[in-house]
Amino acid sequence: MPQQSGLTFILFQVVPLLCIGYFLIIRPQQQQQKKIKEMQDNLKKNDEVITSSGIHGTVAIVKDKTVVVRVDEGTRLEILREHISTVTNSEVKPEVVK
User: Which distant-in-sequence residues (6+ apart) come within 8 Å of 68 by Cβ?
Assistant: First the structure.
């Protein structure tokens, strides 16, 4: 029985494990991040949102990097788009950052 070399071991045992790890862990996370980024880019006025810190409000003004969220009558907060984790009144199912 021939002895396996280090390269053969890498090719037949380590590389498949790396591929499985990529398809089970890294790729789904990249897809989830892409959906969240798309949701944040498509924010529009009157969307009901929840921030990553749990603040509920309605989008009043959409800017390039931020949105102004109305949280109560006369109370508005300017929040970075990347901190919006959920849109609750969209026609599509809400995206939640886990």
Answer: 59, 60, 61, 76, 77, 78, 79
